[in-house]
Amino acid sequence: MLQQACNQDLKLKAARQDLACTLARGDAKQLATADLELQNAGGKLCDLEQDLAQAEVSGVVLMPPERRKAEAAGRIRSRPPPTFRAARLCSPCAT
User: Fold this and answer.
1) Does some domain include residue 27?
2) Pair 80, 87: CB distance under 8 Å
3) The organism sits in which domain of life (predicted)?
4) 89 contact partners, CB below 8 Å, separation of at least 6
């Protein structure tokens, strides 16, 4: 019983040390830096989403000649063409 209490006391001290280390890493300067990085990443994501929404895709995609030759020789099987579509990545951007 005494050993269990001693172990619990050591665990409590270790947990308090972990908490102190974690709190020390999360000071106001680092929190502000992380917030700015988050805002910057969000802005870049919105820019990319707007570019994607306005993107025009046209033309024909051809298989490289090497693949066509290998397919004709029976070394690889042909697959149906993939279907592409744009998807919204997150909520609309505030502009």
Assistant:
1) yes
2) no
3) Bacteria
4) 45, 48, 49, 52
- Condensed to tens digits (0 to 9), the pLDDT of residues 25-71 reads 878 888 788 889 989 998 898 888 888 888 777 777 776 777 667 77
Q: What's the whole-model pTM score?
A: 0.41
Range of the domain at 1: 1-51
Tokens at 9, concatenated:
């006391």
Query: Helices in 26-76 by DSSP H: which ranges?
Result: 28-54, 65-72
Q: Do 38 and 83 contact (CB within 8 A), yes or no?
A: no
**Cα 86 to Cα 53: distance, rounded to the nearest angstrom:** 8
CB 34 within 8 A of CB 25: no
- Report the domain count for the chain: 1
